[in-house]
Amino acid sequence: MAAGRLSFRNITALAPMVRVGTLPMRLLALDYGADVVYCEELIDMKMAQCQRVVNEVLQTVDFVAPDDRVMFRTCDREKDRVVFQMVTENTRVSSGLWEKDVAAIDVNMGCPKEYSTKGGMGAALLSNPDKIEAVKASFCFHAVHLFQLEETVGLVQRIEKTGVAAVAVHGRYTEERPRHPVHCDYIQAVAQAVSIPVIANGGSLDLVKTHANIEEFRKVTGASSVMLGRAAMWNMSVFSSQGPDPVEKVMDEYLKYAIRYDNHAFNTKYCLCQMLRDKVESPLGKQVQAAQTNAEISVAFGLQEFYLQMQEELQARRDSLQSDSQPDRPIIDGDVTTMAVKFERRKYPPQITPKMFLLEWSRKEKLEQPLYETVQRSQDRAFQSTVTVAGRKYRSSLWEKSKKFAEQAAAIVCLRVLGIPEGHIGEKDSSLVCKRKREGKMNGSLFKPGGGRSTEIL
Ligand SMILES: Cc1cc2nc3c(=O)[nH]c(=O)nc-3n(C[C@H](O)[C@H](O)[C@H](O)COP(=O)(O)O)c2cc1C
């Protein structure tokens, strides 16, 4: 742990929870009064392969895996409060990558899952105190499993000597399940035996149901601090000294963060389903389960206007960042010509698009039909298209919010570079697309019968 930045004395913390401890949940926990928030456990080897990307659109720092998945997303708001939980067995592991983005690092010695233990990580570390001592000092440990009392106390004392900042103790044995009562007396014995802060954990099911119970749990365990897992996952307002909020309000607040930070929809669904608990089969629960995108989830919660407004804000930020940084002239690199161009629908008559103009021109020139290839980047799911015309490629350096818009932008680049009319309002009339087509009156391969939404086709 980066000592000095974060104190583990007399705090309440959101426990590390796989799939739950992502950015929107962590921010929600801070809003409701948690002092410290742990992220979900992340495997050190996977993190080492990630690239650190400053996401200027979302105003976050993302750690992006080689397959483009965002493994860890964080933001300034939580910088001094977020604990990065790592699953590791590497005694030389370096925290350099995350050091400047998080307040502390926690080594998980509790994960009983096979993928952790067979690599000597997670709970397997507990039975290898030599290794624990060798894992870099200045970490904070989250130990889940208890052994016999003397063994547990002895182990935590050894951990203390490594110079860690705190130890979170989940008062259950390896073979016990979360439904078993927590052993407060064990946590108390550990708390009495060491001088570093002990964070009591494991009380969600039977002991901590309200904010007042947090203090009771702290007292009964004699611990310095309290960490909550499930009680917080079910209703984050348990951290609030103002009393609980109805879970419906908590879900709304959560969803707003999920939309604002472009949280992966499957993760959003998972967290909402944990909050719905026994209502997961209710009509709302079924709607959430059926949804595939954050947009669809927002409809289930009546937050579609918030969703649209947020998309507009993010797009405006994306546009201004892009236009600030990109020159408006073609850059040629090999067979690719790039230009900073955006497709602005309002600049074209309803039936006309640049793609349509490019297609007509290619036909007139007896060239092959333009070929569009589109990619989507993970950090903001924006699109970029490349169009191939007469063996050369054209693309816009500006990323668009949809595949259709990205294709139109690529078409504009090609048209501008080749000096071909693109069909926007106020442009000198060209004969490329005839008047009847412009008005959408033709039934042909280009237009839907009745002159319908031709832009759908192109
Ligand atoms: C959904 C879920 C995911 C969890 N993931 C992790 C994890 O990633 N790392 C970890 O050390 N513990 C993990 N745990 C254990 C919790 O951090 C905590 O120790 C446990 O839930 C007991 O606390 P509680 O009674 O307050 O829930 C997880 C627990 C739950 C319910």
TrEMBL record:
Q: Which cofactor does it need?
A: FMN
- Molecular function in Gene Ontology: flavin adenine dinucleotide binding; tRNA binding; tRNA dihydrouridine synthase activity
Q: Does the keyword Nucleus apply?
A: no
Q: Which Pfam family, any one, appears in the UniProt record?
A: Dus
Quote the InterPro entries the UniProt record gives: Aldolase_TIM, dsRBD_dom, DUS-like_FMN-bd, DUS2_DSRM, tRNA-DUS-like, tRNA_hU_synthase_CS
| One GO CC annotation | cytoplasm
Q: Which keywords label this protein?
A: Flavoprotein, FMN, Oxidoreductase, RNA-binding, tRNA processing
CDD domains from the xrefs? DSRM_DUS2L (cd19871), DUS_like_FMN (cd02801)
State what protein this is by name. DRBM domain-containing protein
Species of the source:
Monopterus albus
